[in-house]
Amino acid sequence: MPPLTTSAITSREVHTQGRGLTYGALAYVLWGLFPAYWPLLVPAQPVEVLAHRIVWSFVTLAIVVMILRRWRPFLELSGKGWLIVTAAAVLITVNWGTYIYAVNAHHVVEAALGYFITPLVSVALGMLFLKERVRLPQTVAIAVVIVAVIVLTVDYGRLPIVSLILACSFGVYGLLKKKVPLDAVTSLTAESIVLAPLAGLYLLTLGSANTFTTEGTGHTLLLLSTGIVTVIPLVLFGAGAQRIPLITMGMLQYLAPVLQFAWGVFVVHEPMPPSRWIGFALVWLALAIFTFDAMKNRRKQTLAPVS
């Protein structure tokens, strides 16, 4: 068999990156459409929905892990690793629960804000806890976000609590994930192993208040679907991350909050007074600075001579 030519390799890389871009975009689009999904589970209350999501995510992930025969990482994970997984599980529970509550309580725009500022919270956490060097544009972007939060606090008449909980919980969650030697699917499976017994016990204590069997077949199927709805975007994300550069995935991540914001403003018509627009404009300015700097830095690293 003749060796592959440079053009053939390039063509293969282009095809691989094209698939990766599709997978990544689909993952973030699905996450961006979550505000349309969670209200379908009413009259189940947010805590019940969260418990079902944990239980059925565990079932779905367990099936995936069995099919892929990837049980070994769980057996090899150290006690310290399981402690970190447990802490991460608590944080993702807070994040999921807050988001479900926010969507069903008509705070979609505020939830979207949380995911807009998450990348900058992650940079700040890296600076504080991992001693990572922060470039001047990143510092400026963080400062602009702080100003935006102040503007939005004045607008809301309170701190944007939902946004801050979502951003901080997911930012610290990401920080902990750096310490766990597991990929995305296996890591979430480990977290669900920790959480599922508690979630299942909670559902049992609900008794007749559990809507799983009291609201008809359609409602039951929707609650069952929470596992698949959780896992599919995650699998797509993993497939995309393996095929395209991290900077590209970083750009794609804004698809989700953009779609969530659009849903909140144009579909469910949440109020957006001028002062709130100003706050969001500052957040988008910060993200523009952050993204431009990341792309510029990536380009410098690519063009740097190899010694």
From TrEMBL:
Location of the EamA domain: 19-153
Signal peptide: none
PANTHER family from the UniProt entry: ACYL-MALONYL CONDENSING ENZYME-RELATED (PTHR22911), SOLUTE CARRIER FAMILY 35 MEMBER G2-RELATED (PTHR22911:SF137)
Chain segments annotated as transmembrane: 20-38, 50-69, 81-102, 108-129, 136-153, 159-176, 188-209, 221-239, 251-269, 275-292
Name of the protein in its database record: Chloramphenicol-sensitive protein RarD
Record-stated family: Belongs to the EamA transporter family.
Organism: Lentzea waywayandensis
Membrane topology field: Multi-pass membrane protein
Keywords: Cell membrane, Membrane, Transmembrane, Transmembrane helix, Transport
Compartmental location: Cell membrane
Keyword Cell membrane part of the UniProt annotation: yes
SUPFAM superfamilies: Multidrug resistance efflux transporter EmrE
